[in-house]
Design goal:
Largest interface: A-B, 44 and 43 residues
Largest sheet of chain B: 7 strands, mixed, barrel
Strand order of the largest sheet of chain B: 5-12-9-10-7-6-13
Helix content of chain A: 10-25%
CATH class of the largest domain in chain B: Mainly Beta
Oligomer: heterodimer
Shape of chain A: globular
Number of strands of chain A: 20
CATH topology of the largest domain in chain B: Cyclophilin
Number of helices of chain B: 5
Strand content of chain B: 25-35%
Distance between the termini of chain B: 56 Å
């Protein structure tokens, strides 16, 4: 797979939650293909900015931690997101900066101490052929990444074209991801709120929810005081990212990036994209609360965040240390 | 005229709307969903990130940082008004593409459909009659989902409607033609599944290497054509 002279990253140790991703696969949901893509978009975009890539460049999403890579040829990398201890040839190095690896250098990410997902970007991006416009891996569909399969230890991921910034770039500590003991997650109330009833909408926001261990990229399963639902049958309908499904047991499931495209459970609403970024960093046991926002409020927050992030990306690209 | 509470437009998420065209799903509603899908795609182009038609509804996911929702709502309301006018004049049957009819070959046999014999027995039908009932019905694609390329076809004749298996199979071969209650489908890829298997369709419905990657679209009409073993093998069917 590697061409001579082309740099690559050798996967010395990986786990099933180490996956090639980008911003997602769009336009094929009508064929049953989910959007995939990075769960925490903000962290992923910062990783790509640090190595001077476009926001859409393929990178690695790493869940849990305890993974190790080594450079084949010179590679510039950056790691953002969850707090995973980062070691370069056995010595601690900072996350949120560009790091130049020479041939044979080993980079190790320890178990996450806070947060759920790290993003590892390489300058030039991983040179992986996109499927329907995206390299996003969806293992359930067997699509994207490397032949739709889990990454194999001992294999190499080729790195594309340019060799990245000559100078070290970094993100100030105050802008880095920091885990919170309890997250407040914004959502927009949705189509079946009337069916579910106003009392349920209130109770849903009063409840304290705990992230369950059987959560994955498809859905985040939560547990709190169960909501009382009347039995009802619904025709299956399209599901969007962040949709909060309520199966008959009254315990919500938030649809994450690998969610199924249609389904027949009632939905109380959908978590906003900013809320998904935060959920993407919550691990089993994490406590959550939900707060309804109007669609207009959600748009305002999203625009403000986009302006902040775009400015930060520009600053990173222009920064000298 | 009775008061109609449809169509309805609902918020689904910060960047998505759900449009319900009716309370139930039937071929007319399906062709309206299909028409609406084509129109919004034409009018909004790249501002739409994804469009998911299903039974009686259409989910629109749009680029909410570029497109103002009030503008989107105006566009949808105009289209819904046009649709209402067309439906009154019964023009909707002429909606483009909704007239597509696709024939899929199927080798009905116990070697490709392990539930064929049991289902015939359950409904006190001969295997011949079961095959005839399943293959004479004209189905429509009501939704695509569950897995890439998995098309939900409705409706199966009540005489052969059969509930899902109590315990799903861990491995259903690609191409398996199956029924669950009053729906039928072709498994696009080998996967776990709880539907009752009647036979196998040797034509690959979903192939990412091909353009378009999927033969069927929501709204298409589908009929199964029984084929013999030799024809099945000639078309590339596996045993």
């Amino acid at each position: 797979m590697t061409v001579s002279n082309q740099s690559a990253l050798l996967l010395q140790q990986v786990n099933p939650w180490t996956q090639l991703q980008d911003l997602g696969r769009f336009g094929a949901a009508n064929l049953g293909l989910t959007q995939g893509g990075v769960v925490d978009r903000t962290s992923a975009r910062l990783a790509n900015a640090l190595v001077d890539n476009d926001a859409t460049a393929p990178l690695l999403e790493i869940g849990l931690g305890a993974v190790q890579f080594s450079a084949i040829g010179a590679v510039t990398v950056a790691v953002t997101g969850a707090l995973m201890p980062l070691l370069l040839n056995g010595r601690p190095v900072q996350r949120y900066q560009s790091i130049r690896l020479d041939h044979g250098d080993e980079l190790r990410l320890g178990y996450s101490q806070a947060g759920a997902r790290c993003y590892l970007a390489v300058s030039g991006g991983f040179a992986i052929e996109p499927v329907l416009g995206s390299v996003s891996t969806v293992l359930r569909e067997g699509i994207g990444g490397v032949d739709g399969l889990p990454l194999l230890e001992g294999s190499q991921l080729p790195v594309g074209g340019h060799h990245g910034p000559e100078i070290c770039r970094s993100v100030e500590y105050c802008y880095q991801f920091k885990a919170r003991a309890m997250q407040n997650i914004p959502f927009v109330a949705g189509a079946q709120q009337a069916v579910l009833g106003a009392p349920n909408l209130i109770r849903f926001q009063q409840n304290l929810y705990q992230v369950q261990a059987n959560s994955d990229r498809m859905g985040m399963r939560l547990k709190g005081t169960p909501l009382a639902l009347e039995q009802q049958s619904m025709l299956s309908e399209g599901i969007c990212l962040g949709a909060i499904q309520l199966p008959p047991d009254g315990q919500p499931i938030v649809m994450l990036n690998d969610h199924q495209t249609i389904g027949g459970y009632p939905k109380i609403g959908a978590v906003t994209r900013l809320g998904i970024n935060a959920l993407g960093q919550c691990r089993a046991g994490h406590l959550l609360r939900f707060t309804a926002v109007s669609q207009q409020q959600a748009v305002t927050f999203a625009r403000l965040h986009e302006r902040w992030l775009t400015a930060l990306e520009l600053q990173i690209r222009g920064r000298r240390s | 005229m009775a008061y109609s509470e449809y169509p309805q437009i609902h918020q689904a998420g910060e960047d998505s709307l759900l449009i319900y065209l009716a309370a139930v799903a039937n071929p007319q509603v399906l062709s309206q969903v299909q028409w609406l899908q084509q129109q919004v795609r034409q009018q909004l182009g790249d501002l739409l990130l994804d469009v998911v038609p299903s039974y009686n509804s259409l989910l629109l996911i749009y680029d909410f940082l570029q497109l103002d929702q009030s503008q989107l709502l105006r566009c949808i309301e105009d289209l819904l008004a046009q649709l209402a006018a067309m439906t009154q004049q019964k023009h909707c049957a002429a909606a483009p593409e909704s007239g597509r009819q696709i024939e899929l070959p199927c080798y009905y046999s116990s070697e490709t459909g392990p539930d064929l014999v049991i289902i015939a027995k359950q409904h006190q039908l001969s295997i011949c009659d079961l095959i005839k009932i399943h293959s004479t019905q004209l189905y429509q694609v009501y939704a695509i989902g569950f897995a890439p390329g998995f098309a939900y076809l409705g409706w199966v004749d009540p005489r052969i409607a059969t509930p899902r298996l109590h315990t799903p199979r861990l491995k259903v071969p690609a191409g398996s033609v199956a029924i669950a209650d009053r729906q039928t489908a072709v498994y696009p890829a080998t996967s776990p599944g709880g539907w009752n298997l009647l036979g196998n369709c040797p034509v690959r419905l979903f192939d990412l290497q091909k353009q378009p990657s999927m033969i069927l679209q929501t709204g298409d009409a589908v009929r199964f054509v029984p084929i013999e073993r030799a024809e099945y093998l000639r078309l590339g069917g596996l045993l």
